[in-house]
Write a structure and sequence with these properties.
about 45% helix; seven-stranded mixed beta sheet; alpha/beta; Serine Threonine Protein Phosphatase 5, Tetratricopeptide repeat
Length: about 425
């Protein structure tokens, strides 16, 4: 058993931390699973099949590890990269072809054919349109020192709509489209290898179908895709993030559990929406499947199940959440100043927020401190309390997304107090 498969076994036993959901804390390596069939572990993974015409990649990984992955592949085989399949257009999956294409140019080889879903080009167009916004999101989510997001993309040469079968020598790769984390998602079935490459439909964490800072995700369709994969009965699950899962029984369990987690959130949310419940009521009424969330491959270390509920509301109910005051809201600052006048000032609200937090209601305290900070945005005493409250909130939060947002809020207030001190 090689290093990656040893890592996979320890992960299945519950020894996997958050390394698979942060680009700076991952295991990078290549493991040959069969002759001519390899799995490459990185922040975002890839799988490779070697055929008579060269290599076929399923995903290409990211800028973070492109050079290292190129070296690992070249240690494994000198074969040219003939085909690369994007499981979807997220930037951590589509930036691994450049070095291989440069190599092809230098050696006079045919170029690399990139295949993706037909919605992928429109995704890349949108990324260029919202480049600054996406950079700010990445800075906040991962704690980068400055906004980070690429501007130029390797568009696909060929696209598919529902499915496409590739011939790789004497074996086939069946590409299947299902909406899930994205509208352009593709997963791959390799019958000869008894394997599936899931892309981000499985990531060794609670499914990332609620991300509060990203565009629409599709939880119901995601669960359906997982059930389709489960029905294949394969012996190998190769995920978009995290280590492989080996053995038909384990693969069946992992896919079934992931589908069941999403399905219960979908069923509960739609039932309450159909009964006329407000979003806030649903968020506080949904029963989370704690037994499933305790599985080593479904822990909410990246996304949060309650964010999935919000995404379902956005998908099926629009943006009106049931509070009529928010239909055409006043400025936050105007409401905050009115409340401060009633409460004895912003500092009084901030002090009360501290007291509420000390009694265990940190969520309520955060609402109060936002009123205080919006009422007097230059008040360093208020910002000092705000920073402390959000640091405490981040410490309690399990999901990387939540930690990122809370930590960014704390950091903003800390910067405000430093500016006054200087």
């Amino acid at each position: 058993m090689g290093e990656i498969l040893d890592f996979a076994e320890r992960a299945w036993q519950g020894a996997l931390a958050e390394s698979q959901v942060h680009p700076g804390r991952v295991k990078v390596g290549l493991e040959e699973l069969d002759t001519g069939f390899a799995f490459v572990s990185a922040f975002s993974n890839l799988a490779a099949v070697e055929g008579p015409d060269g290599l076929c990649f399923f995903d290409t990984s990211s800028l973070f590890h492109a050079k290292e992955i190129f070296g690992l592949v070249r240690e494994w085989t000198p074969a040219r990269l003939a085909t690369a399949v994007y499981t979807h257009g997220h930037v951590d999956h589509v930036f691994g072809t450049r070095l291989f294409e440069e190599e092809a140019g230098e050696k006079g080889w045919p170029g690399v054919e990139v295949i993706a879903h037909e919605a992928c080009p429109a995704r890349f167009d949108r990324y260029q349109l919202t480049n600054g916004y996406n950079g700010v999101i990445n800075q906040r989510q991962f704690g980068f020192p400055e906004p980070v997001f690429p501007k130029n993309y390797r568009y696909p040469d060929r696209t598919l709509r529902e499915s496409l079968t590739l011939e790789i020598g004497d074996e086939t790769a069946v590409l299947n489209h299902d909406r899930g984390e994205t509208d352009d998602h593709v997963w791959i079935h390799l019958p000869k290898r008894s394997a599936i490459y899931t892309g981000d439909l499985f990531i060794w964490a609670s499914p990332n179908c609620g991300n509060p800072q990203k565009v629409q995700r599709y939880p119901r369709e995601w669960a359906e895709a997982l059930r389709k994969m489960q029905a294949l009965g394969v012996e190998r699950l190769l995920p978009g993030h995290g280590p492989p899962i080996l053995g038909a029984e384990r693969v069946n369990e992992a896919l079934g559990d992931a589908a069941a987690l999403i399905e219960t959130l979908v069923e509960q949310t739609l039932e309450m929406m159909n009964a006329g419940a407000k979003l806030n009521d649903i968020l506080h009424s949904v029963e989370l499947p704690e037994a499933l969330l305790a599985r080593p491959y479904l822990r909410p270390t990246y996304d949060d199940p309650l964010y999935i509920v919000r995404n379902l509301w956005r998908l099926y109910g629009g943006w009106y959440e049931g509070n009529p005051a928010n239909l055409k809201p006043a400025r936050d600052e105007a409401v905050a100043k009115a409340l401060a006048e009633l409460s004895g000032g912003a500092v009084a609200i901030a002090k009360h927020a501290e007291a509420v937090a000390s009694e265990g209601a940190l969520d309520v305290a955060c609402h109060l401190i936002e009123f205080a900070a919006n009422a007097e945005p230059e008040n360093t005493a208020v910002h000092g309390i705000r920073a402390d409250l959000y640091r405490a909130r981040a410490k309690q939060e399990l999901s990387l997304m939540g930690k990122g947002i809370y930590t960014a809020a704390a950091r903003d207030s800390e910067e405000s107090t430093k500016g006054e001190a200087n």
